[in-house]
Structures are given as C-alpha cells and as structure tokens.
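dumping this here before i forget
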Amino acid sequence: MKSTYRRQVLIATAVTGAFAMALAGCSSGSTPAPSSAGSSAPASAAPPDLSGVTLNVAADWSGAEQTNFEAVLKQFTAETGATVNYTSYGSNVATTLNTKITGGDPPDVAVIPQPGLLDSLAKAGSLIELSPETLASVQANYSKDWVDLGSVDGKAYGVWFKGSNKSTVWYNTNVYTNAGATEPKTWDDFTAQLKKVADSGVYGLSIGADVGWPLTDWFENVFLRSAGADDYDALTAHTMAWTDPKVIDALTQLGTLWGDKTIVQPGGAQRTFGDSVTEVFGSPAKAGTVYEGDFVAGNITSQTKSVVGTDAKFYDFPSVNNSGPAVVGGGNAAIQLKDNKGAAALMTYLASPEAATIWVKLGGFTSPNKLVDMSAYPDDTSKQIAESLINAETFRFDMSDQAPSAFGGTPGAGEWKILLDFYSNPTDVQGTAQALEKAAVEAYGK
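structure:
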C-alpha cells in the first residue's frame, strides 16, 4: 500500500507551496522549510517512526463498525509502528469524554458524532488545533462545508472521517415500474410521481413517525432547499424565529403533502420508522416510497427480502424552488485531545483518502473525503450515496442534532412532539410555528 504519509506530505506541499518535513522529525507546531512554488516533497519523506508510542483512541462505534475502524487503525500501526488501543464509548460519548477530560485522562484522539460537542470542547480549551500538515490535507481533500464544520472561531479542530446522507428517497422499483412512475428531480414532480403510484393501487408514500424524529429530517430537507443554507444556519442557531415566513412556507409545503390522504398511507403517526420501510419493501408492498437516510439500506436488508440495488433503489431528495444539489446529513469527526506527535500523525492519517478507503471497501461506510476513489465502494448503491454526498453544492449537518436535546432530541417533547402533532393536524401551520418557537426559546434560553 502506498504510504499515506508520503501522499499527505505531497498534498501539504501542493497546498502550502513549501516542503513538508517528515512527521517523524517535527512536532505538530513546527514550521516547514521554505521552497519555491510547484516543488515536490523530498523523495525520502516517509511515515513517522512511532515505535514504542501507545495511543488511546475512543469513538461510539461497536460491533461491526468497531471491527472496521480497528482495521483502519491496524494500517496506521503497520505504517508507523505505534500501538493503538481502541475503546468504544457507545451512546454516551459526550458524557464519558467530558468525564475523562475532567479527570485529566482523555484519549489521545476521539471520534465524535456531534458538531455541538466539538464546538463546546474547543471553546473549553480541551482540543488541539490541527497541525499544518493535517490542515493542508483537510483543505485539499474536503469541501469547504466540511472544513467549516470542523472549525470553531476560525481555528480548525476536526477531521470528518465518516459522513452520512439523509437526503435519500427510497422506492420499490417494481411498484414504480407498474405505475409508470419515474425518479423525480423537483418537488412538484415528486408529488406527481407519488400520485401515479397511488393511482396504480398502492399508496405513494409510507411514513413512520411514531416518535417524531423522521419528521425533523423531512422539515430540514425542505427548509434547506426552500430557504437556503444561510437561513438554515440561522434557524439552527435560533437567531431566526420559528415563526419566520420562510419556516411557515416550509411547514405549509409539508402540510400539503402529509395531509393528502390519497397519496400518504394512513396510520403514520402510530407507525414506527422500521415498519414504514417494511410497508414499501415487504411482500406485498403497501406503498411505493419511503423517505429517510442512507441507513434505510440496512433496514431493507435486515427486514425484507428485497435486494438493494435491484428491488430497492433511491433518488436524491427533490429540488425545491429550483434549489441546487443539497444534502442534510451527519458524520463523525476525529479530534485531538493530547499534544503529542503520535496523535498529530494519526489525525493526518485519518484525513487521508487511503485511511477512509479501507473502511469504504468493507461496506457500510460513506466518506466525505472527495479524493476517495468511487470505484472503492462495494456496490452501485453505496457509490451513488457517496457521490450525492460529495457532489452536493451545499451540505448541512442535521439541524435537530445540533439543537439542545430538550428541543431537538427528546421523545414526547420539543420539536419531535410538535411536528408529530402537526403531522396529525397538518392544517395548523401557524399554531405549529408558534409552538416550535416557544419550545425553542425555552431550550436555547433566547
């Protein structure tokens, strides 16, 4: 395997116009020797020798995901000689990591799923800025949205190693073929194709909204496309009110769809998300379409006999008001908590396409690193998901995941409950907006 570090030093050279010193011979804060623009890295540049160095790494991955990430870390060990110990924090990443930091024993590197946690740790002074080598790689390998997502107050701290695409609409190919329906590009065509499916004898759309979180994803995708990225950011930070006319417009659009009983399968307020997938891809199919993220592929495989890529395919969430390609998604960012050359070297490694490609080939993984070769994805569907993520003109992290949990992440409360109530009564747009604003003020404290 071509040395990750040799490649990353070359990237740093191309971006900064200076020779990058071998990581073994410099600390994360060292200054590269000057060089004329367009020169290449020294041929002798090699992975740092980290023999005898032990690094502790933590993330939320367990099971198959842990096994796959450990394969990534194993290659780092092979290249550098470092010993890497991995610990899974499970679903309690924020609590466990803060406890470790308070106790003076954080891991060298952690991989976390919330940009809000990255932000709070950076502002508390708990994180190490990306080294010049890592920053150059991130800037070369990732779109600006991902770079910004890993930065706080103009300083870069995060490498977004894993991404997820929550702007995918999944459909039963047999149902669509029988109905004469096609993959839509715009919202108006989307509703028209759903009507075609409904006219064929099965419902156009199944929604499983029993606890409310899938409805937040619906809203975020419509709002990002109808209002734009800047207003999405403003609403995320609650510097825009939920009673703003642009929020009203998005809710009205959703209410019109959700309230169409000829298209939407009844019982959605009581149906689980998993059951909505089965309604579309089970036998017999009771609906033709279900919206949710790339993880739907796993539900289809585990819950039905449908084959992803054959019986089950997806298209991108449709454009609204001529909006460009956009993705609402999530991800996992690597952050450095100890200032040592081993941790800095691991961050550089995780920013490389080679590191991401190891997991890409194993499946169940989407990388936001735009230099990962699309041919590495094990099937056409995972490749299509990755292409949509990489090629999006705009990427925004899931809004509810960035909100205080009392507003964006609690069953029976906040946004989850209010949108569920709206789903059951989709004509009450004004009352829904007012309820959302009241709940947001209470949760954000402003």
